[in-house]
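Subgroup meeting minutes
Present: P.N., E.W., G.H.
Scribe: E.W.

1. P.N. recapped why we're keeping a running log of single-chain structure predictions: easier to compare across weeks, and new members can see raw inputs and outputs side by side.
2. G.H. added today's entry (183 aa).
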Amino acid sequence: MATQPTASSVLVRQASSSSDLAAVVECFREYTTWLDEDLTHQNYTAELNGLPGKYAAPTGALLLAVDATTDTVLGCIALRPLNLESVYLESQPAGLRYCELKRLFVYPEARGRQVARTLLVEAVRCAQAAGYDEMLLDTLSKMTAAISLYKSEGFVETEPYNSSPLNGTLYFSKPLSRVEIDS
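Output recorded in log:
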């Protein structure tokens, strides 16, 4: 009887080599094919051509999940600094640093191995290490597995922080660090 691979057989690394960046481009393309939505409002072509771009360390992260044994790419996730529109900032505490989670994708053959959770947890860790106070993301209502994952990792639905033209866009946030003041 074959055993299911575990999350421990998944390694996550910052995409830095040319082969890693090519693998990220392929992940992003697979993601957008699956998504079947027009992402031109996000300057998507320029993003692909300029990787790592806004996802570059130390303020961003472009992470690949790979099989620990074969080095096969299993999926990716990206993180970038975010300058919010003033409309969103009006309802937020002053002086916080925000980042945005983007492009979580796991190849179909790698699903069921906790790859998405492993990528998400590592992206949150990177954001905390970079000193961000809050992580934001947008997703589509049809992405039910992703929404369940985000909620299970402490993300809560929030007000829109961008003006996405895509129908069914949902917005989530997760506080990363808060200084508690004793009274």
